[in-house]
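Q&A log
Question type: sequence-to-structure
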Amino acid sequence: MMRKPLNLQGWLLKLAAILTGLFMLMPLMAVIPVSFTPKRFLSLPKGDWSLRHYQALMTDEAWLASISDSVLVALASSVIATVLATAFALGLWFRQPRYGGALVGLALLPMAVPPVVSAVIIYFLQARIGLIDTYAGLILTHVIMVTPFAVIVMLTATSRLDKSLELASRNLGASRMQTTFWVVLPNLKFGLFSAWFLSLVLSWEEIAVTLFVSGIDVITLPKRIWDGLRLNVDPIIAAVSVILMVLTTIAIVAKTLHEHHKGKSGS
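Response status: OK
Response body:
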């Protein structure tokens, strides 16, 4: 059998991609040994490696409370943002109003406003109604900040829907509600998941506006990390970073394996 000719250009592109990825990962990889330092400040371990900061993370009530706060706020805000974005996108898809472009621009307005400006406006608004440093206020804040991104995802998803789906469903006697839940939404499941996941990630890492509207009773994980870096440079921050990196890597690998398995089964 004749061997296939070596594709030098393809190998060079793969090598360049690998080197670029390693270069981008180098700052993140440097956090790993720092998380095992036996000292009480951020430093590279010199011979002695310790798990004290991982143990402290698992036993420190303040850090555990911040993790639970972040999970609660991210889950609640991502679900609400996805519901709002889906309702908005479906409304435009069903009705196709004359001023749809203006409505889209209005929905995406929070993306154009600088986060500091949004933070000041939201702070004064919540101060008037007593929502500062509360779960409801923080969830509302995150919903405002992440909903535009979910709207973009859902608008993209609905733009790929065939309008004949609605016509066929209505001709068969289905109501608008039945058409929405039995025909349209099942065809948007990937868009729904994408909008929810993107909103979850953005809410989880949101810090700019969170600094203005919380900090005593409700402290999210990014806020706790910010305080740790600004006040005492706690090495627990490195341990948290490593754990988040591991979880992210597991999610990416799982998604890649799922898509690979799906592609093999499809072929």
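Response note: The chain has 14 helices and no strands.
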